[in-house]
Amino acid sequence: MTRPSLPRRRHLLGAVPALALSAWGLPAAAQSWPDKPLKLAVGFPPGTGPDVVARLVGAKLAELLRQQVVVDNRAGAGGQIATQSVAKSPPDGHGLLLGEVGSIAIAPPAFGKLPYDPAKELVGISELVRSDFVLVVPTHAPHASLGDFLKAAKARSGDRVNLATFGAGTPGHFGAEMLGEAAGFAVEPIHYRATGDAVTAIVAGDVAGAFVSTALAAAQIKGGKMRALATTAGSRSPLMPEVPTFAEAGLPKIDFSAWFVVFAPQGTPAAVLDLLNRQLVAAVQDPATRAKLQEAGFRVLGTSRADTEKMLKAEAQRWAAVVRATGFRGD
After folding, report:
1. Are 132 and 232 in contact (CB under 8 A)?
2. DSSP strand E in 139-244: where?
3. Which pLDDT score is estimated for 96?
4. Backbone angles phi, psi at 116, to 5 degrees
5. How far apart are CA 247 and CA 129, in angstroms?
6. Which DSSP letter does residue 93 get?
7. Rg (CA), the chain
8. Of 207, 141, 128, nearest to 172 (Cα)?
């Protein structure tokens, strides 16, 4: 048998990766992906929780893909601006969204003129992290426990209890409504457009309290500016082990959280989505990245594509029911 010439042998060796990729079912278009920097859109400003997640995961994802990942902060409208930008972008796997519960699950039933349809225009790749919420009050408030707070709220003889929110249609907004319904008192949501304005109002005592993320609550409590009464998590937070859950307090239905999922436009090749899922899971499970996310107050997940889609469908149904029950319309 004659041996192939050296150029011929090199050609055959060079073909091995392509043959392997074909065996895995990758179409030709996906074999060269990513061939340019990825853009990860975030609907909130730099320094916020979503931005922290995007930058930590994006940095590790860039290492794994050997391609730059650019975080694109498109703040405004509760994440809707960023969501729309990705929903309408080319389905080539280079434009991604770090979507969250507000713009994906709450906005569709709450806003009749939403400029995108997440169920039809976006596909979930992996749920990266979750952030639970904590009911906080000003440090000078007389309520030392959730029981004290609820007792005072129900004793207001029909007067509504002012609770701050980080915007109409956000998880904290509907969390306040849930609490009032479950505990039997009237709530008056006070909507703030800027996180800083809401925090200032809570600290100053302009409102009775608010639902804030675990990460934000932990920092404010440590700084002596807020007092935590209960958390929406299934178990106590490692950041605040002294704070009981609502379930412990006899209100198990107060169990909502903010989840963060990476999305791509519908029509993105399945092979690219599968590769992205594997690398995103690897990114959040990287020991250093995982530790930083946990320190920031997030529960680290990293789910499969199937589990992500299952979660998204369940959350869409759940929040649609919550929105209907409150009668809220954002437009």
Report:
1. yes
2. 161-165, 187-191, 209-213, 226-231
3. 98
4. -155, 160
5. 22
6. S
7. 23
8. 207
Determine the angle formed by the axes of helices 270-285 and 305-326, rounding to 10 degrees.
90
Q: If we measure between CA atoms, which residue out of 92, 95, 103, 88 comes closest to residue 44? A: 103
| Cα–Cα distance measured from residue 73 to residue 95, given in angstroms and rounded to the nearest whole number | 13
**From CA 115, how far away is CA 120, in angstroms rounded?**
12
Backbone angles phi, psi at 199, to 5 degrees: -60, -45
Q: What is the 3-state secondary structure (H, E, C) of 253-276?
A: CCCCEEEEEEEEECCCCHHHHHHH
Q: Compute the distance between CA of residue 163 and CA of residue 293 in angstroms, rounded to an integer.
A: 28
Which residue, chain included where needed, has tokens 């039933």? 109
- The residues facing 123 across adjacent strands are 264
Q: Specify the pTM.
A: 0.85
CA–CA dist 87, 259 (Å, integer): 19
The series of mean pLDDT values per 10 residues for the chain, 331 residues long, is 45 41 49 92 91 97 97 91 97 97 95 94 98 95 94 87 91 93 93 87 96 89 94 92 95 94 98 98 98 93 98 96 88 75
What domains are defined for the chain? 36-130+258-326 (3.40.190.150), 132-231 (3.40.190.10)
> What distance separates the 2 farthest-apart alpha carbons in the chain?
98
Phi, then psi, of 70 in degrees rounded to 5: -100, 125
Write the CB contacts of 174 (distance below 8 Å, at least 6 apart in sequence): 106, 256, 319, 322, 323, 326, 328
Contact 41, 98 (CB under 8 A): yes
What pLDDT sits at residue 30? 57
> Alpha carbon of 41 to those of 38, 54, 84, 238, 246: distances in Å?
10, 8, 10, 29, 33
Coil, helix or strand at residue 300: strand
